[in-house]
Amino acid sequence: MNEKRKPLKTLLFFEDLCFGGTQKQNLELALRMDRERFTPSILTLTGPTDLDDAAQKAGIPLLHMGQHRKPPMLFFSSLGKVLKNIAPDIILPCTAMPNIWGRIWGRFLKIPVVLGTCRGGGAPIRQHEWLLWRLADAIICNSQASMTKMEAFGASTERLFYIPNGVDTDLFHPVSNPADSQLIVCVARLAADKDHATLIRAFAMIAAKHPRATLRLVGDGPEGAALRRLASSFNADTSARIVFAGACSQPAPHYAEADIFALSSVREGQPNVILEAMSSGVAICATAVGGIPALVEEKVSGLLCPPKDVDAMARNLDLLLANPGLARQYGHAGRKFVENGFSFQAMVDAHQNLFEKLWERHGHNRGGKYNEINP
């Protein structure tokens, strides 16, 4: 009789645990992993941040390399010692700098299974994938668009795996909102890739035509001060209706109040917030970048426009505000789409299956092809 295998020590490696789609998605993975098969732990380059409590309450070991909200300047020089002490069976880098240094040190230390992830639209460039994809046993992409970019950098298709994000359809569910509040919500980190400036300018263009409309920006980040200055540059009435709500660990109440969900990103993978908003039955107004067009069907569950096109974003917001019935129709279609194609359990199962297949391949040293592994 075969002896039962010990759970595989699986290290999820982040730059930080700030509120963000990548952090939340991978934290959900850690929270939901089968403890008889895997023992997850988390390493961050920073000190404590927003999502630490959720990991600690679940009993997930959490180690910080830094003291503040920024990584130590020379973290890469001490990372090897930290990883050697943790001695994981599997390392899963979840953000850009961990994808670089986690793979380099993972290979040097001979960690059995070294993975890579490609989640954001700019990830292949930031992570130097044209050089580093070879260091990963497999690279997990959360959108087909990310896989295409990886292939363009020369990454072997045998090492690329598409695992879409999951969404909690019980938590993010439609709520009747008969008041028609004309609330536009954007849940996104205030960072350059999200290009909130385009959304703010688009709202300002149609604010006078829709005097009850409000734009609520949920999130924080490095662009916060500049975006607040931009919002205050318009007339007093418009500026007062651009609300900075700050970071939020649980955005479901914001979706519940929204009539429209807007996202003006210039780069994306497969945004969690789009799936959460669609699961909540909210019409989408977004840019057609990354994996967004694969989620939002034009004139079925929302309206799309090119990135940085203020006029087109304003036209789409105007159309949805002027036609609340159409917005509700799009919201219903989005909910059905998420119910039929996405779940947290499917996301977790796909990761776990891939981890075990790679572990088996390492242990048996069969030298089989990567494309024989189907998560």
Could you characterize what this model shows?
The chain has helices at residues 21-32, 52-57, 75-86, 96-108, 123-126, 129-132, 144-152, 196-206, 224-232, 236-240, 252-257, 272-279, 292-295, 310-322, 324-341, 344-364, and strands spanning 8-14, 38-44, 62-64, 90-93, 113-118, 138-141, 160-162, 183-187, 214-218, 242-246, 260-263, 283-287, 302-305. α8 packs across α14 and α12 (272-279) packs across α15 (324-341). The chain contains 16 helices and 13 strands. The two termini are 27 Å apart. The chain is globular and about 65 Å long. The strands form two sheets. The chain has a seven-stranded parallel β-sheet with strand order 3-2-1-4-5-6-7, sandwiched between helices. The chain has a six-stranded parallel β-sheet with strand order 10-9-8-11-12-13, with helices on both faces. It has 375 residues and is an alpha/beta fold.
Characteristic terms for this protein:
alpha/beta, 7-stranded parallel β-sheet, 375 residues, globular, 13 strands
Q: SSE layout and pairings?
A:
Layout lengths: L7 E7 L6 H12 L5 E7 L7 H6 L4 E3 L10 H12 L3 E4 L2 H13 L4 E6 L4 H4 L2 H4 L5 E4 L2 H9 L7 E3 L20 E5 L8 H11 L7 E5 L5 H9 L3 H5 L1 E5 L5 H6 L2 E4 L8 H8 L3 E5 L4 H4 L6 E4 L4 H13 L1 H18 L2 H21 L11
Parallel strand pairs: 1-2, 1-4, 2-3, 4-5, 5-6, 6-7, 8-9, 8-11, 9-10, 11-12, 12-13
Uncertain regions spanning at least 5 consecutive residues: 366-372
Which bin fits the share of residues in helices? 40-55%
Computed CA radius of gyration, to the nearest angstrom: 21 Å
Strand arrangement in the largest pleated sheet: 3-2-1-4-5-6-7
DSSP helical segment count: 16
Q: State mean pLDDT (0 to 100 scale).
A: 93
